Amino acid sequence: MEEGTVTLFAEKLSNLILQEALVFGEVEGQIKLLRNELELMGLFLRDVDSKRVYEERVKAWVNQLRSATHEAEDVIDEFILKMDHRKRRLNTLKFLPTCVGMVDKLPFIHELDSRVKDINAKIGAIMANISKYGLEDLTASSSSTADQAVSHKEKRAPVVEESDVVEIIDGAKKVKQMLMMKVETSTRSVVSIVGMGGLGKTTLAKNVYNQRDVQGPFDCKAWVYVSQEFRAREILLAIALQVMPLSDEEKKEMGEDELGKKLFGYLGEKKYLVVMDDVWSSEVWSRLQPHFPDQAKDGSIVLITTRNKEIALHATYSEEFIYELRHMNDVESWQLFLKKAFRGTGTTTPTLTTELKELGKKIVTKCKGLPLAIVVLGGLLSTKEKTKQSWEKVLASIEWHLDQGPDSCMRILALSYNDLPFYLKSCFLYCGIFPEDSEIDAWDLIKLWMAEGFIQRRGKERLEDIAEEYMHELFHRSLIQVADRRLNGRVKSCRMHDLLRELAVKQAKDANFFKVHENMDSTFPISIRRLVIHQNLINHDISQCLHNSSSQLRTLVSFSGTIGKKSWGSLQEHIKLLTVLNLSEKEVGGHVLPRDIGQLIHLKFLCIKGFRSHVKLPSSIGGLVNLQSLDLGGNDCNIPHSIWNLKKLRHLECWNYKISSQSQINKCVNGYLGVEQLTNLQTLALKGGSWLEGDDLGKLIQLRSLELSKCSTSYLKTEFFESIAKLTVLEILNLSFTEGHTMKTLVNRLGSVWEKKNVTIDHHNKTLLPGLMPFSHHAYLYELSLNGMLEKLPKEIEFYPPKLLGLQLWRCKLRDDPMMILEKLPSLRILELWFNAYTGKKMVCSSGGFLQLERLKLFYLNELVELIVERGAMSSLKTLEIWRCDKMEKLPHGLLEQTNLEKLSLLGSSCHKSIKEIEEVGGEYWDKLRKIMC
Fold this sequence. Notes:
Blueprint: H1 2-19, H2 21-24, H3 28-48, H4 56-91, H5 98-132, H6 135-140, H7 145-148, H8 171-183, E1 189-194, H9 201-209, H10 212-215, E2 220-225, H11 232-243, H12 248-253, H13 256-267, E3 272-279, H14 282-288, E4 301-306, H15 309-316, E5 322-324, H16 330-341, H17 354-366, H18 371-381, H19 388-403, H20 408-418, H21 422-430, E6 440-441, H22 442-452, H23 463-476, E7 481-485, E8 491-495, H24 498-510, E9 515-517, E10 530-533, H25 542-546, E11 555-558, H26 565-571, E12 580-585, E13 590-592, E14 605-610, E15 614-616, E16 629-633, E17 638-639, E18 651-654, E19 658-659, H27 664-670, E20 683-687, E21 705-711, H28 718-726, E22 732-737, H29 744-747, H30 751-756, E23 783-787, E24 806-810, H31 819-822, E25 830-834, E26 842-845, E27 855-859, E28 866-869, E29 879-883, E30 903-907, H32 912-921, H33 923-932
């Protein structure tokens, strides 16, 4: 762990020496000496890191080293901050001669020289203790974790999903039987799954919950994670959002009682299935039970998972409907171990030597039938050579860890953590900052890792790609789990098992890596660098939590509450060197950023979003010269034009934010500022504006994701579409045009552009989608969303992105049936038509069309009367959603012939007449319809 801290700071110093040679001046020699010492320490730590938990002497030495490294980092960063303030002050006093500036700089240089010399002396003494106290001998028997790790260049096999990991043969059948018995009862029932941590309660519950014949009888379903951090309103809201529509106002303002009453009223007319995963106390059921109607539609069920049988009895009343998970037997344990340890080798039944088989059996025995322990150990061994020596080392490590205490599962998990290469340890621990059982956005996690400096550069590779590889290594070792995937197969979100999170939090506390603040009465360490808040601090001042801290806060993450002016004022002294500021607001309110936030020059990650957060950005935002990621969600606010100063910005995600215009006076004083200066941008989400004029957008050739909202057609001229054509590495494109402007008027301006591309244009039919022309060159574009009037789609398939997987059309008012064209797109898997995207009365999906389509959504197509699905069309369709297509009285013709259809979602009076007719007749069609409707 500390190897990463030292190595990352040494790399940071090397970069600073190159970039700031003139700033450091005569101190450069001492800085280089510090850098060299850190590099040597990093090499030594690579050998000693895994021994830290074995020897108290090593632990004390590493703690001293970590403290010295943090002190050195503070000294360097404070110096850079002071020099930045000095530079800004001198810029306002340009009339002063240069010699005055040099004299003004001398005190800072002398102070830095003195402090770095002290730190070098301190580090020298710490390094001398290696020989003095015999620490060298302790590393002789240790093996380098770098040797044990799979090369970061190795291509991983597809990650085995959580549902494939735990195979308890009879569990799913028995729980399913319990549910089916309860479906026939006249009142609401409770079924419980009980088992210790790591046995697979959640996996078993998911296995049952996702089965089509289990879901079939129910009108609505919901899955919620409860965990130890129980908040009744959040649980009720999570359930309500899955079963019923709620307005933004209701989401924000309804209290627990009001929300509970609304949910109770809705469920009273439904047959519902609700899963409450990871319940830790009887109070949870006592508090939530009144909101689940007992006399609802016959056969409603609540499924609970818990570690405590007393909780299950409290909710279920009868042991007959409690399933207690057993430990896996020897055969099951061995099969699971082989599946994980030999994943990616191309075989599920590997041939083992007698020696390896004996060692493997001993290793599996140590897991005592706990699936999580087997999975994690298997993941560890999948990174090792399949040799006797390698497996003997792992077995010896397991035995040592198990000798340290009674909690065998946690000890085995700790072994897997200790085996991680240094560059993964920080990444793994960082996953522990998120609330228990939360779904972690993979993209946010990658950006946070980058801002924290955990990602090591490798030549010209994108940092985001390297970070994604790190994430896949953690998946491969089963230390985090895939929760959801994007259309292109990449990970969208992930989860961390609660035991692994517990391990991460414990290890982070021991290493003073971060502090999770869950209890207002908890005491804080003297030196705290990362603070994570899970409680609402509206009635508390965060600075009170930090008053004992002797070092500067580097990371502030809050998952609850807002920070007002008073809090910012008291925080100012603690956040001068802040690198990460991540505020996720769950309650109504708004964040007020201080006017001088631009002085936080070390800030790399700024994220403030939640339920309609209103964030006012001061003009000083342009001073955040190191900012890599700015995410303000989708709220309607303004951003100062000084944002264009942030040349290191890689991700600008402010969907509904408008960039203020630069005044002529400002242009004369500071020069022109525009989007073309942000050449490092990978992600851009903004409201359209005058900044789109000209061809500046086309200079951002690294863009992977572009989302533009409310674009006025007055800005969308030929240069705009030429710019889109140049962005050939785009993966996601979302264009939204302002209401009242037709795209048709733009096409006349584009004829010349298309002719330059040597494409034949029908000048009598110029209602083609503007900008679509260059999409044939967008080889990576897989997701496209267009919002605005256009009347006709282009018929030529070469106009469309060649690998398009998902297409959304909004308010396009197409007059001709779009299915005749779109069904020919070879890779299309998701199609969504929203708010009169089509204004005709009939759509036909012809035989052999939409062969890859898995999901079709038709929302608010007010004129649609009939959808025909011919035999052989949409053969892969799994989900069909028809919402508020109120003139469509009958189900799509041929729909029930679809063998792969798993889910049919209807809202409003869509297909109501047809459903009623099928229900009255009954039989095979009604049985199928009942199973897939939700």
